[in-house]
Specification:
Keywords: Hydrolase, Signal. The protein has 236 residues and is mainly β. Helix content is 11%, strand content 37%. Strands 2, 3, 5, 6, 8 and 9 form a 6-stranded mixed sheet that branches. Strands 10-12-13-15 form a 4-stranded mixed sheet, with no helix packed on it. Strands 1-4-7 form a 3-stranded antiparallel sheet, with no helix packed on it.
């Protein structure tokens, strides 16, 4: 009887372990600089954005979309061009910086303007680090434009999306000034009861910390390399 009982148990356990190992890890990430639309929402620079405020890294949808939210049912606010999205002033060459909150094997990174692909970077299935940067030429374009970035995951059918509004050269008319420089101090002291959105700056143990997404009760310095709090050095 003991052998007849144990074999099914071992079989089920092995099946569960196999399923766990086979399931792909979830990937998350967004462009933090120049600030993407979801970063603008998370930083409070654009109001009434809905749930994207709490999870700017989660704009995930099937590959191939040309919409800022990937064409899914979530985060449709990112497609609303009638909103006053601030545009970052840049030159002809722009470095796009991604914050990767969960690493995943990557096929390609693509950048589009007006439906035309202006850059592509092939990672060949490699995993990104905590950050990823690409230098992209805008090909002589000037004025206000929106760059759609697409991070294509290698082992799923999905991609992550980010739209970045830019002002290339003069002609902005003063309606979309560049973002203010980062503060030189550490801001307010971290509080365990306070709610922090992505982009929030706090001080803790004499160091400056920035929240990567919504958080409450997570102590800076304890969430690890991939955690919500990013160490930005000693307070000035």
């Amino acid at each position: 009887m003991r052998r007849r009982i144990m074999l099914p148990v071992l079989t089920v356990a092995a099946l569960l372990v196999s399923m766990f190992l086979a399931a792909p890890a979830q990937a998350h990430g967004y462009i933090s600089s120049p600030p993407s639309r979801q970063a603008m929402c998370a930083q409070g620079r654009v109001a009434n954005c809905g749930d994207i405020v709490y999870e700017p890294q989660s704009v995930e949808a099937p590959k191939g979309s040309m919409q800022c939210n990937g064409g899914g049912s979530r985060f449709s606010v990112l497609n609303d061009n009638s909103r006053a999205w601030p545009a970052t002033s840049v030159g002809q060459s722009v470095t796009f910086n991604w914050v990767i909150t969960a690493r995943h094997a990557t096929s390609t990174w693509e950048y589009f303007v007006g439906g035309s692909r202006i850059a592509s970077f092939n990672d060949g299935g490699a995993q990104p680090g905590a950050t990823k940067s690409h230098n992209v030429s805008l090909g002589g374009r000037t004025g206000r434009l929106t760059v759609l970035a697409r991070w294509n995951v290698a082992d799923t059918n999905n991609a992550f999306y980010a739209c970045v509004d830019l002002q290339v050269g003069s002609g902005g008319g003063g309606t979309n000034p560049p973002p203010p420089p980062p503060p030189t101090n550490c801001g307010t002291a971290w509080s365990a009861s306070a709610v922090y959105n992505g982009g929030a700056i706090v001080s803790y143990n004499g160091r400056r910390w920035q929240a990567q997404w919504w958080t409450q009760g997570e102590t800076p310095g304890t969430t690890g390399e991939w955690g919500v709090w990013r160490d930005q050095g000693a307070c000035s």
